[in-house]
C-alpha cells in the first residue's frame, strides 16, 4: 500500500464510527477522492480542524482497498472560518463545492480544482457579494466542463 501526497479542497465530511470521518476531496492530480481520516473527531486530534469543509490542505495518504486513509494534513488555505461565519457566504460556498463535486466525477480535473480555490478565496475575502462570486464560479465551472 504505497504512500502518496496530494493537495486537495475538502468538499464534505461524513461521520464514520465513533471517532473517524470520511472526507470527500477535490484533489489536484487525482480528481474526486474519498478518504478516511482516523481519529479526527477526538478532541486530541492533530489534524481535525484542517479537514473541515472549504479548507485547502496538503495531504499525505496511503491507498486502501475501498478508501484511502489520510495520515498527515497541513493547511494551505483556511477559508472555512471566514465562509462559515456568514450565512450568505456559507450558502454560496455550499453551492460551489457541490457543483465542483458533480462536475469532477470523471477523473482528474485540474481546471475545476483551480477554479474552486480561486472562488473560495474570493468568497472568504468578502471583497464582492457572495451571490456574484457564486454566479461567476458557476458560469466558469460549467464552461470548463464543456457546457
Description:
The chain has 147 residues and is an alpha+beta fold. It folds into 2 domains: 3-78, Beta Barrel (OB fold (Dihydrolipoamide Acetyltransferase, E2P)), CATH 2.40.50.140; 81-145. Helix content is 37%, strand content 33%. It contains 4 helices and 5 strands. It has a 5-stranded mixed beta barrel with strand order 1-2-3-5-4. A hairpin with a 5-residue loop joins strand 4 and strand 5 (68-78). Helix 2 runs parallel beside helix 4 (130-145). It is globular, with a radius of gyration of 15 Å. The termini are far apart.
**Roughly how much helix do the residues carry, as a percent range?**
25-40%
Cα-based radius of gyration, to the nearest Å: 15 Å
Provide the CATH topology of the largest domain.
Answer: OB fold (Dihydrolipoamide Acetyltransferase, E2P)
Give the N-to-C terminal Cα separation.
Answer: 38 Å
Total helical segments: 4
CATH-level-2 architecture of the largest domain: Beta Barrel
What percentage of amino acids are in beta strands? 25-35%
Low-confidence stretches: none
Strand order of the largest sheet: 1-2-3-5-4
Topology, number of strands: 5
CATH class of the largest domain: Mainly Beta
> Major sheet, described briefly?
5 strands, mixed, barrel
**What is the overall shape?**
globular
Protein structure class: alpha+beta
Mean pLDDT: 89
* CATH superfamily placement of the largest domain: Nucleic acid-binding proteins
Q: Which series of helices and strands comes N to C?
A: EEEEEHHHH
Amino acid at each position: 500500500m504505497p504512500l502518496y501526497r496530494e493537495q486537495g479542497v475538502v468538499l464534505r465530511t461524513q461521520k464514520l464510527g465513533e471517532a473517524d470521518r470520511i472526507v470527500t476531496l477535490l484533489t489536484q492530480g487525482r480528481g474526486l477522492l474519498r478518504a478516511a481520516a482516523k481519529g479526527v473527531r477526538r478532541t486530541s486530534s492533530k489534524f481535525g480542524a484542517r479537514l473541515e469543509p472549504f479548507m485547502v490542505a496538503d495531504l499525505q495518504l496511503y491507498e486502501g482497498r475501498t478508501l484511502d486513509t489520510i495520515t498527515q494534513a497541513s493547511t494551505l488555505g483556511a477559508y472555512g472560518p471566514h465562509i462559515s461565519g456568514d450565512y450568505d457566504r456559507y450558502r454560496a460556498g455550499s453551492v460551489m463545492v457541490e457543483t465542483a463535486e458533480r462536475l469532477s466525477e470523471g477523473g482528474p480535473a485540474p481546471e475545476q480544482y483551480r477554479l474552486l480555490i480561486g472562488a473560495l478565496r474570493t468568497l472568504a475575502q468578502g471583497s464582492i457579494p457572495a451571490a456574484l462570486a457564486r454566479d461567476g464560479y458557476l458560469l466558469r465551472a460549467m464552461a470548463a466542463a464543456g457546457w
